[in-house]
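I'll show a record.
***
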Amino acid sequence: MSKNERESGEFTLVTTGDSLIYQKLSIFDEPEFLKVCEIIKSADAAFSNFETLIRNDKGFPRYKTDPTAWMTSPCFVLGELKWMGFSLFSLANNHSMDYSEGGLLENLRVFEESGVTHAGTGRNLSEARAPAYLNTPKARVALIACNTRGEDGPAGETWRSVPGRPGLNPLRSTTTLYLEKPDFDRLAEISRKLDLPEPKEGRLSFLGHKFEVGDKADMHTAPYKPDFDGNLRSISEARRNADFVFVSVHNHDKRRPGETYFDDKIEYIAGFVETFSRAAIDAGADAVLGHGTHCLNGIEIYKGHPIFYGLGNFISQSYQSNPKPYDWYEARGLHEKTYPDERPAATTHPILSVAEERRARRSTTSVVAKIVFDNRKPAQIMLYPIELLRQQLQGGRPLLASGSSAEEILNRLSRLSADYGTKIAIEQGIGKVVLS
């Protein structure tokens, strides 16, 4: 089959968000779960972000200033995801380096030996940033995967006699804070009193932040240029070597910083992610597949191609089951109360306030997106709402939502997407992006 023949037919991609998998899935037979599996298996290619590590006891837990979670999973979980129908995986996320270089390299070895297509981590920056390819009967697919947080372990490039550093493909950012001139002058005076650097040309560096004079108080984020340019080069390379190019972006950055991670601001992602996503389409990407916020973010149709700014959680299995390092216990004052081989006992779900329940539901509901391409152009985008089973010991798997629950999920996504001018029609519990 020639390239022209391939491009003239239909090609289907199913894309999901974050898969934090620890337990078997193939043992369950609820109709709502099996329907999700059918949607995935119906595609020519299916994508998920693998937000854990298969490390086989390799590596050691890295130090974290925010000791929330160190993820590690049994080796059988990759087989479970393949059983569900997945063929494309991003490995670039905030858990890629949870067990330092040893854990990352073992996870990479497992994926390489499995033969599945994966992108986003490597033994050096060139390897982590390189496109990965999947050959299907209908088309050749390329995947580039990146992560936006600089503290999560960016890979380093080999330079002359100095070896590269294992890690992930970074897409870091810079932040500039703007103040009206009277406020800027007051901050400059404080800086002088503290014997900090003097302002230069309306710019001031103060306690690790960059300030400039502006018309109003504001914050602007921009992609870090070396990461921005490097990822666009990879996309251009993939465009020359594949029929379809998909770019995965794992992002935790909000449009405005807040005090808590799961506050309402997380539904609105940082401006530099929007800038990069549009540039990725300009460079040749057919779709941008965003995840990381653990809740739904809006969908933008840019020059006819979809940008999913956040597809939420797809699988989120029990943190209770996941072994935790000493740092986790110490941060919670449990290090003197718990034996080293003892894990915290499972607890029942607490009674949640209305606001807490809203946030909990936001992290346990999402969509599976199905893009049908015709002649390499998106012809149809279907959105299947899902709910993650909220059960303490065996929960976290996706079930196809229906009725009022499906309507609520899709209406929320429709509201978030409207900010980008995107319209979503809802028919019989399924969303359809209106493509003009």
Remarks:
- The longest strand covers residues 377-388.
- The chain is about 25% helix and 25% strand.
